[in-house]
Amino acid sequence: MKILVINSGSSSIKYQLFQMAEEKVIARGLLEKIGEETSFFNQKSIKADVELKEQISNHEEGINFILKMLTDAKQGVISSVNEIAGIGHRVVHGGEEFKAPVLITDTVIAKIEKYADLAPLHNPANLMGIMACKKYLSHAVQVACFDTAFHHTLTPQAYLYAIPYELYRKYKIRRYGFHGTSHLYVSRRLTGLLNRDKEDLNIITCHLGNGCSITAVEKGMSVDTSMGFTPLEGLVMGTRSGDIDPAIVFYLSQKGYSTEELNDLLNKKSGLLGISGISNDMRNLFEAKERGDEKAKIAIDIFCYRLRKYIGAYLAVLGKTDAVIFTGGIGENQAAIREESLKRLESLGIIINKERNEAAIKGQEMEISDDSSAVRVYVIPTNEEAQIAFDTFEIAQRYENQI
Ligand code: ADP
Fold first, then answer.
1. Which of 16, 243, 326, 329 could form a disulfide with 28 if both were Cys (CB 3.0 to 4.6 A apart)?
2. Ligand 1: does its nearest atom lie under 6 Å from the Cβ of 209?
3. Per-residue pLDDT for 403 more than 80?
4. Which residue has the higher pLDDT, 401 or 82?
5. CA 327 to each of CA 29, 240, 266, 379: distance values in angstroms, whole numbers, following the listed order
6. What is the reported pTM?
C-alpha cells in the first residue's frame, strides 16, 4: 500500500511517498514559494532527482503538480495516482477534541477550520492541502495527524494556567503542546530499541529544531510539555523567546508596541536570533562564538541553561526517569549543546559519556550516556513523516477492511 504524507504550509508543500508496511520512502519533495512569481520544486526518489522552477499560484495547483511529478513517465515513481491508497496530513492544532489521528470527514474539516482560531498561521494552510487532495485523490483515504494529539493525556494540573478558570471555559485557554508527532515517534523508537513495554518506561524527549520543546513521557503518555497555548512558551528557540514574564508584554505595550509588533517580536525576532543579533541557526552561532563573539556565546549559554532547567523540572515530574532523548536538527547534530545542557545533572542520575556523545553519527540512533549513568541518554533522529505514514496506514487498513 502506498501512503502519501503531506505537510502543507502557507506557501510550501512538503511530501513523502511511502511504501507500507515497509515504511520505505520512494519519493520525497518540496514545493516552495507557492503564490510567488517563481516557485521552487525539488523531488528525490528511487528513480531520479529533479529540481525545477515553476509558477504555482495556489495549493490546488501545487498538489496537482506534485502528483504529475510522482506519475511522470521519466521522473515519477508510480504509474497512476490510484496507487496512492491513503494521504496523511500534518495538522497543527486539534484543540481538545482530537486525541489521535482521524479519518478526515466533512465534520473533521469543519473542526480543523474551527481550531484555526487557535492556530491562525497553520490550520488554514494545512486545510488547503487537505482540500486539494480531496479534489485530486478522491479515491484515497485521508487522515489528519495533529501536533497537539499526543499531549491530550496531560492532566489539569499540567494543562491549566493559573488564570481565572472562566477563561478556560470560555476561550479554551490552556496548554495544548505541540511537536507531538515527533515526541511520540522518538519515545516509541526507544521503547522498541530497548525492547521494553512502554508502561515500564519514563522518558524525557527533547525536540530541538528551529522550534524547541521538551516532553515528559510517563508510561507512553505525555504528562507535561513545554509549549503551551501556542508554540511560543517554553525553551529558547531559533526566533521565539520561550518563557518570559508576561508583564514584559504590558510594559512594551505601554511603550507603544502594537499587538502585531509584539507578536512579531516574540515569535520572529527573539530567541537565538534576538539575543545574538546574528542568526537563528545554531551552526552560525557556534562559528561566531569561535570568532570570539560574546553575544553568540551568551545566546548558546541561555539556550542550554533553559533546557537544563526544564530537564531538571521533568525529572521531578516523572520521579523515576529511565531515559532522556535528544532529537531535531540541534538535538541530533550538536554534541556541545547536549553536553552543556546535561551538566550538573550527575547528582540526579544523568552522566553523559563525552566520547560517545562526540562520536554520535548523523542520522543514527545512538546511546551517549556513560555506563555508570542511572538515566540512559540517547540521540534518536526524528521522523514525523514516518509516524504519520504509520498512523495513516493503520487507519487506511481499518477502513479497507470495513468496506
Ligand atoms: P526545523 O525545526 O525547521 O525542522 P531543524 O530540525 O533542521 O529545523 O533544526 C534547525 C536547527 O538545527 C538549526 O539551529 C541548525 O543549526 C541545527 N542543525 C540542523 N542540521 C545540523 C547539522 N547537520 N549540524 C549542526 N546543526 C544542525
1. 16
2. yes
3. no
4. 82
5. 22, 18, 24, 6
6. 0.94
Res 400: pLDDT: 78
Of 92, 327, 330, best ligand 1 pocket probe by most atoms within 8 Å of the beta carbon: 330
| Order of strands, sheet of 323-327, starting from the edge strand that comes earlier in the sequence | 221-225, 212-218, 202-208, 323-327, 376-379, 366-367
Tell me which residue of 310, 232, 298 sits closest to 267, measured CA to CA: 232
Predicted confidence (pLDDT) per residue in 127-139, tens digit: 999 999 999 999 9
Query: Architecture of 2-146 per CATH?
Result: 2-Layer Sandwich (3.30)
Give nearest CA residue, ligand 1 atom 20: 329
Q: Is 274 in the pocket of ligand 1 (CB under 6 A)?
A: no
Amino acid letter, residue 29: G
- In terms of Cβ atoms closer than 10 Å to its own Cβ (0-12, 13-18, 19+), residue 93 is buried
CB of 210 sitting under 6 A from ligand 1? yes
Phi first, then psi, for residue 133 (nearest 5°) are: -70, -35
Cβ distance 75 to 53 under 8 Å? Answer: no
How many helices and strands (H and E) does the chain possess? Answer: 15, 14
Measured between alpha carbons, how far is 343 from 352 in angstroms, rounded to an integer? 8
Per-residue pLDDT tens digits for 258-295: 999 999 999 999 999 999 999 999 999 999 999 999 99
Q: Whose CA is nearest to atom 23 of ligand 1?
A: 333
Residue 329: CB within 6 Å of ligand 1? yes
Residue range(s) of every CATH 3.30.420.40 domain in the chain? 2-146, 194-384
**Residue 43 C-alpha to ligand 1 middle, in angstroms?**
20
| Residues catalogued as catalytic | 147
The closest-lying atom of ligand 1 relative to the alpha carbon of residue 284 is 16
Please give the average per-residue pLDDT across 241-248, as a whole number: 98
The response to whether residue 282 sits with its C-beta less than 6 Å from ligand 1 reads yes
Superfamily of chain region 194-384: ATPase, nucleotide binding domain (3.30.420.40)
What residue type is 103 in one-letter code? L
Q: Cβ distance 324 to 204 under 8 Å?
A: yes
pLDDT in tens, 360-369: 998 999 999 9
